[in-house]
Amino acid sequence: MMSPPRGSDADRSRQVSGEASTTPRMKIGNYRWRVCAMLLAATTISYIDRQVLGVLAPFLQEKIGWTELQYSSIVTAFQAAYAVGLLCAGAVIDRFGTRIGYALAIGIWSLAAMSHSLATGVISFAVARFALGLGEAGNFPAAIKAVAEWFPQRERALAAGIFNSGSNIGAIVAPLMVPIVAAQWGWQAAFLCTGVLSAIWLIVWLLTYRTPDQEPRLSPQERAHIGAEPEAPTRRVPWSQLLRFRQTWAFAAAKFITDPIWWFFLFWLPKFLHAKYGLGLLELGAPLITIFLMADAGSIAGGWLAGAFIKHGMNVNRARKTAMLICALMVVPVIFAAKASHLWLAVALVGLATAGHQGWSANVYTLTSDLFPRHAVASVVGMGGFAGAVGGMLISTVIGLLLQATGSYVPVFLLAGGAYLVAWLVVQLLVPRLEPAVLSVDAKET
Question: Which of 17, 40, 258, 269 is the most exposed place for a label (fewest CB within 10 A)?
Answer without folding.
Answer: 17
